[in-house]
C-alpha cells in the first residue's frame, strides 16, 4: 500500500477545514433561502377591505406612479373626474362614507382655499400595501396662514392671521383593476402632539385655525348628533351620502363619527 507524502499529510487538516466550511455555508444558505412556494394570501377581517383586493388580482399598471400623478394633479387644483370610479367612496375618521358627487358639493361650500391662499401640502412616504397591491399609502403635513375669511356654508369667519401646522396624517387610495380610484381614506393622524391644531389634520386643522374649533373624534356621540342635525338642516353640506347613494360594496353601517363596527 502506498502511503501519502509528508506534504499531503500536512495539507489534510486544511482540506478538512475547507470541506467543513463549504458544507456549513451551503447549509446556511439552504436555511435562509426563501421558500419557492407562494405564501398564502392574508384574508382581511373586514369585508370592505377583502372586497378591495379584487379576488387576488394583480394591477396591470404602476399603482405607485399613478398615486403620485393623482396627488400632483390634486395639489395643482386640476384634478380630473376621470381619476375616479363610478362607485368611488371617501372615508375619514369622522367623515363619510361619501360618494364623489356629494363630496364635490360639500367641498364647494367650504371656502378653505380662499381662507388659506398660501396652503402648502408636503406629501411623502409613498408605499404599497403588502397585503393589497391596489392600495397605496402616503403621508401629508399641511401648513398655511389663515389670511382670508372662511365662508362656511354662508357663515363667515373673519381671517385670524394665525399660522397653521397640522400633525402628519396618513392617507391612502385604492385603485380598481381598471385603474380608477374606488376608495380614498383621508386624514388619519399619526401623532396628535405635533403641530398647533390640537391634533387635528387636513381640513379639520384648517377649520380649527380659522376659529371653528370642532371636537371631532371617532365615537364622539355629541359630534355624531351634530352631524345628523346638519343633515336635517339641509344647507350645510353632507358628512356622508344617503344610504341609497352609497355604492353597494360599502357594507359598513358606521356613518361620520359613529363607532367602527367589530366584524
Task: Describe the SSE topology.
Elements: H1 6-32, H2 47-51, H3 63-76, E1 84-91, H4 100-108, H5 112-115, E2 120-129, E3 132-145, E4 150-152, E5 155-157, E6 163-165, E7 169-175, E8 181-189, H6 202-209, H7 221-233
Parallel strand pairs: 1-8
Antiparallel strand pairs: 2-3, 3-6, 3-7, 4-5, 7-8
Supply the key terms.
263 residues, alpha+beta, six-stranded mixed beta sheet, two-stranded antiparallel ribbon, 8 strands
Secondary structure category:
alpha+beta
Rounded average pLDDT:
86
Radius of gyration: 27 Å
Helix content, binned percent: 25-40%
Q: N-to-C SSE series?
A: HHHEHHEEEEEEEHH
Q: Total number of β-strand segments? A: 8
- Report the portion of residues in β strands: 15-25%
Shape: globular
* Through-space gap between termini: 80 Å
**Count of runs of 4 or more consecutive helical residues:** 7
Oligomer: single chain
Q: Low-confidence segments, ≥5 residues, pLDDT <50?
A: 11-23, 28-39
- Describe the largest sheet: 6 strands, mixed
Explain this structure.
The chain is α+β, with helices and mostly antiparallel strands and 263 residues long. The protein is 30% helix and 22% strand. The chain contains seven helices and eight strands, in the order H-H-H-E-H-H-E-E-E-E-E-E-E-H-H. The chain has helices spanning 6-32, 47-51, 63-76, 100-108, 112-115, 202-209, 221-233; strands spanning 84-91, 120-129, 132-145, 150-152, 155-157, 163-165, 169-175, 181-189. Strands 1, 2, 3, 6, 7 and 8 form a six-stranded mixed sheet that branches. Strands 4-5 form a two-stranded antiparallel ribbon. A hairpin with a 2-residue loop joins strand 4 (150-152) and strand 5.
